[in-house]
Design a protein that fits this description.
Blueprint: E1 14-16, E2 22-24, H1 25-29, E3 35-39, H2 46-64, E4 68-73, H3 77-87, E5 92-95, H4 100-105, E6 117-121, E7 127-132, H5 139-151
Parallel strand pairs: 3-4, 4-5
Antiparallel strand pairs: 1-2, 3-6, 6-7
């Protein structure tokens, strides 16, 4: 599938979180709030750690704007649990075993690395932003906040 574009309906999904609990996009959308869905290559790598910590540091701003944050990688629940604990990450991390969710969203990256793509999904389940930046850990975070503010 090609990468989703602004205005496209975001595909629903169900993936396990760090505790093995199944989480679906519709669980967040039913609360009528936008979602930051960010795909990243791997827990504990330098750029991914910087990215997660920037989301952590700005998390309160996302909550105040009425949004929530979900991170997605191919790492397993145990890896996510350690990563969350080590860096005090307050948001949900999902396991995308086999990269199926990344493929569904067109965020699979290339043969060298899984993708680093951020989507804003509005309260109606439509894509409001897609931002791809494999080597940039933080360029999309402020942009995401601006888009969420505009959705109010």
């Amino acid at each position: 599938m090609t990468k989703l574009k602004v205005g496209d309906q975001a595909p629903d999904f169900t993936c396990p979180d760090k505790d093995g609990k199944l989480v679906s996009l519709k669980d967040f959308i039913k609360d009528q709030k936008p979602i930051v869905l960010y795909f990243y290559p791997k827990d504990e790598t330098s750029i991914c750690t910087k990215e997660a910590c920037e989301f952590r540091d700005k998390y309160q701003k996302f909550i105040e704007a009425g949004a929530d944050v979900i991170g997605v990688s191919r790492d397993d629940a145990e890896s996510h649990s350690k990563f969350t604990s080590k860096y005090s990450l307050p948001f949900t991390l999902l396991t995308d075993k086999g990269g199926e969710l990344a493929k569904l969203y067109g965020a699979e990256g290339n043969f060298l690395s899984p993708g680093r793509v951020t989507f804003i999904i509005d309260k109606n389940g439509k894509v409001a932003l897609n931002h791809s930046a494999l080597l940039s850990a933080t360029s999309h975070i402020e942009e995401s906040l601006k888009v969420i503010e505009q959705l109010k």
